[in-house]
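Lecture 7 notes: from sequence to structure.
We start with the chain below.
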Amino acid sequence: MAKRDYYEILGVSKGASADEIKKGYRTKAKELHPDRNADNPNAEAMFKEANEAYEVLKDAEKKAAYDRYGHAAFEGGMGGGRQGGGFGGGNGDFSSAFSDVFDDLFGDFMGGQRGGGGRTRASRGSDLRYNLRVTLEEAFAGSQKTINVPTSVNCDTCTGTGADGGAEPATCPTCSGMGKVRAQQGFFTVERTCPTCSGIGQIIKNPCKACGGAGRTEKERSLSVNIPAGVETGTRIRLAGEGEAGMRGGPTGDLYIFIEVAEHEIFERDGQSLFCRVPVSMTSAALGGDIEVPTIDGGRSRVKIPGGSQSGRQMRLRGKGMPGLRGGGAGDMFIEMAVETPVNLTSKQKELLREFEKLSEDNNPQSSSFFSSVKSFWETMKG
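Predicted structure tokens for the same chain:
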């Protein structure tokens, strides 16, 4: 039976690029793989046929010969036969072809890089988190804080190489520096992390005694952190390169400062707004007057209380709240009145209040309205 055209087998045109040929083969390999076609007795033969086509077309020299002479390029007299020299292997080496596509499909998941360089020999250090608690006053004005962070730093003895005397690590003999090894399992070529070097691609023959070959040691570092004005609970500050040192000279991770603003005994915060609940005497609330209230910057402001004010009434002090973290002006401060009922009255005070109550039947509009509604409700229920 005449052999089918290799381009036709892969479903690509004769002028297809290398990427298009690889994509065509990858599609066919997925479609025709015997594991997916257990009920198709021809699947394995078609799968090998696609492999043979790809083995030829992926190679520039073999492809050029095929384009010129067709299948005859790989038969006797045109290159040394199927098993001989020349272009060889018209029947194709399945493991070679499929391994190439396997790398393309799964290389990223295996954690390595294809080609001569292999895996990265040094790994980046971990990022660190530090929870920092600040006062509301510090969040308002901004501050400079010094923190002590336990972390890993480059070993001074081996300068981060992990080798005794600072010597360079040697290439791993098991994986030749690739950091991974391949094993043939039936139709598949499976890659695994090298068991000798744990995927690093290098081994240390004489580990540093100070760090045990890790290239880093544990140490507490003192850092100065700038807290910008306007921070809130949950604000994150990134200090680049202040995290954990990398393994064997790898880049350092980052340090993330997470801010928590402590509760205040006077002010309550909501975004850029501040709330201050101020107790006001019953007399001041009834007659009106002035009160002095604190502000978050340590100053004082006088607030006028209108006569007849009730508990819960709010008055606004513009621009006396918290500053914006990224500019845009400050928020407002709200004074909330809490009318205070006097306690521990003397006999004279009680007598005066009773007298006052007799004279103030028409001075309590809320009470009059409420009890009028209650009376109407009861009459309706009786009806």
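Points to note: The chain is about 25% helix and 25% strand. The domain at 267-340 is CATH 2.60.260.20 (HSP40/DNAj peptide-binding domain).
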